[in-house]
Specification:
Elements: H1 7-17, E1 36-40, H2 43-53, E2 57-61, H3 76-84, E3 87-90, H4 100-106, E4 112-114, H5 122-125, H6 142-159, H7 164-189, E5 198-203, H8 207-213, E6 216-221, H9 231-244, E7 248-252, H10 258-269, E8 275-280, H11 295-309, H12 318-324
Parallel strand pairs: 1-2, 1-3, 3-4, 5-6, 7-8
Amino acid sequence: MIHWINRSLTLILCLFLGSCKEALDVSGKPPASGSYRITATTGMVADLVRQVAGERAQVDGIVAEGVDPHLYAATTSDVKALRNGDVIFYNGLNLEGKMTAVLAKMAERKPVCAVAEAFEGFDEYAIKATGSQIDPHIWMDVAGWMRALGAVSKTLNSYDPSFGAHYAKRTDSYLAILGRLDEYVREVVQTIPLEQRVLVTAHDAFGYMARAYGFEVRGVQGLSTEAKPGLKDIEVLVDFLVERKIPAVFVESSVSRKSVEALIEGAKAQGHRVVIGGQLFSDSMGPGGTYEGTYVGMMDHNVNTIASALGGAVPDGGFRKWSESKP
């Protein structure tokens, strides 16, 4: 069990580990009063930045909920939003692959930070796939997202040092929330029978979650949804489901469910019943303005859905009620 008495020490570590090289050479200055503008790519990144910036900045996201960032290409209005932003944050690691050229161009004139690449120890932390591919989905491990939080805080402090105390206070507060969330996810996962901790999803977005919390994970598609599954890929996964007697597979809010439905039909043809255990948020959060439209709500929803489908126990009220019971 992780105890969060040492929150301040953890915060200091995150702040010093977080680093965005682009933020060290800043063109332009923030206003002395009022707010400035930040543009972020995905909902997860925008939510993370809002937690640190608070009312000091207006944070605009580009990629809407339910939209796959792997396949997303910047529109004219997106380019305008990037130009209007005083600071830009994106995930990196090729998650927003079709926006790479635009983001590189923006980095020539303003601070641009890739939060998933921006901390020391990244090489040891990152999950490396085949070839030069690196898994970009670090938010699936709450501790990984805590590292990204440090990068955001340091970047904003570099750009707007007169509000450093404001950023530090908000970072400290959110770090404590994430610490409790990480503890909650671990506790819920531990209720799933060991042999049932197998997560089969539409694409391979849950590797960091698997490593952090003790799952075996399989995806129909690879790290990017650009890689379309072939018949052989489906057949191999169907055989896996039947052999291991996996009871449930999961669809994702931002990915077509056709490949997952093909798994269910294939298993049925071999006499094994598999159900859809629920819809998970992978590369996109829930609708804006809802609990699931926040990072905390997204992770709460995901772990509760997974545990419910795989034989685990979910506390009444989920993370919010569980957290209220903690000192």
